[in-house]
Design brief:
Elements lengths: L7 E2 L1 H8 L3 H9 L8 E4 L3 E5 H9 L9
Antiparallel strand pairs: 1-3, 2-3
Helix pairs in contact: 1-2
């Protein structure tokens, strides 16, 4: 049985994919506006985005997380 390959995107690739600047992505992350299923931290600082989850998020309307 073969392992499923997980496709990832860098912050720059994610920003280009959704049409915003890298700084905007970092602000969204800093203020907990991005759904946590979209990304993983690698090491202490690096973020990677899961392509499959990003596609699902965009298909479902790409809403940012709002606090009540």
């Amino acid at each position: 049985m073969a392992a499923t390959e997980i496709k990832t995107m860098t912050v720059k690739e994610f920003a280009d994919f959704v049409g915003v600047k890298k700084g905007t992505v970092y602000k969204w992350k800093c203020f907990d506006k991005l759904p946590k299923v979209l990304y993983r931290k690698v090491g202490n600082r690096k973020l990677v985005f899961l392509k499959n989850e990003v596609d699902i998020w965009l298909t479902n309307g790409a809403e940012l997380v709002t606090r009540k």
